[in-house]
Write a structure and sequence with these properties.
The protein has helices at residues 2-16, 126-166, and strands at residues 23-29, 32-38, 41-43, 48-55, 60-66, 72-75, 79-86, 95-106, 109-121. With 175 residues, it is of the alpha+beta class. The termini are far apart.
Length: 175
């Protein structure tokens, strides 16, 4: 019984757990600290956000840059939260381990930097979802028809066997 409970608990945990949790890196310079949170999966067609939690950030700027894309930057408040985003059209195809350079700037000079890797995901087209749904209904219909044919054949076999058993022994009808 405890094995079943563990299996149910594991299943519930997997269903509730999000598929991709935000990752966080911290950029520091003296007393200034910026925690940069981001989703490690960039989904094309959707805006991709970078959230910043700032401590002593007056006069600092955070810049994020993908190779071959226009960098995004945000002037930081003295303390609090800020965010900026990349448009969903930044990428057009799937890619894995795409480097994203994060820089902490003061007076235009880089004082801290790190490079993180993200994955770019292209969601399936909506018509593809309809196709999968339609094909599922089609194959379920074929399976139901095959099941009906199997039951009908078994019924006819039983009828034939009962007629054969009821027939007289010489094979002649009541003459």
């Amino acid at each position: 019984m405890s094995g079943a409970r563990i299996a149910v608990a594991l299943l519930v945990a997997l269903l509730i757990m999000p598929s991709a949790a935000a990752e966080t890196v911290t950029l520091t310079d003296g007393d200034a600290s910026v925690a940069v949170s981001y989703d490690p999966v960039f989904r094309t067609g959707e805006a991709w956000f970078i959230d910043l939690v700032v401590e002593n950030g007056d006069g600092y700027t955070v810049e994020a840059e993908f190779a071959g894309a226009e960098p995004r930057s945000k002037a930081l408040p003295a303390a609090g939260e800020a965010s900026f985003s990349f448009p969903g059209a930044t990428f057009h195809g799937e890619a894995f381990n795409v480097p994203l350079e994060l820089r902490l700037l003061r007076d235009g000079s880089t004082v801290a930097s790190t490079t993180v890797e993200i994955d770019v995901s292209v969601p399936p087209a909506e018509d593809l979802l309809w196709l999968w749904g339609g094909m599922t209904v089609f194959w379920l219909g074929i399976a139901a028809y095959a099941g009906w044919l199997h039951r009908r054949q078994a019924e006819l076999r039983r009828q034939l066997e009962s007629h054969i058993a009821a027939a007289p022994a010489g094979g002649k009808d009541g003459e």
